[in-house]
Amino acid sequence: SVKFNPTTSYHVAVGSADHRVHYYDLRQTRQPLNSFTGHRKAVSYVRFLSPDSVLSSSTDSTLKLWNVNSGECTMTYSGHNNEKNFVGLAASQDFIACGSEENCVYVYHRSLNHQLLKHPFSNMHESSPTREDEDDEDPSQFISSVCWRTGTNVLLAANSQGTIKLLELV
After folding, report:
1. Alpha carbon 7 to chain centroid distance?
2. Which fold has domain 1-78?
3. Are 76 and 62 in contact (CB under 8 A)?
């Protein structure tokens, strides 16, 4: 993915199959201003948390927070499972949400390297909440998209089967 720095129109972060995040000045694209190295697999998403910090998600099952000026990794978040699918990544002021390949949404706090919460995407039918109706154990299901509502603790999440849930951190 590619994201513009929120305070400039010419700095972009690019997630790459070469396991890195590249930070470019679009006025001089011959080489990046910085390349952030530390992931073991392809980088599928990038998101800015501030003008000086960019978050990356990789199929190595980690998220990394980078200082765009120094290129230093300032935090690694782990606990979710992501080895082959695009599982989504969303960031708000203090919270980070991502999907996982075990059909759960994970939320991290910016200052903690472990999960703050894990929400299973149960597909129980409202009228018949029995174990037989659950599809949690289906390994083909995964969270495919997450999105914070701006200025709130409300998170919208969707999985690979088209189920959408609205969640709120309280």
Report:
1. 21
2. Thrombin, subunit H (2.40.10)
3. yes
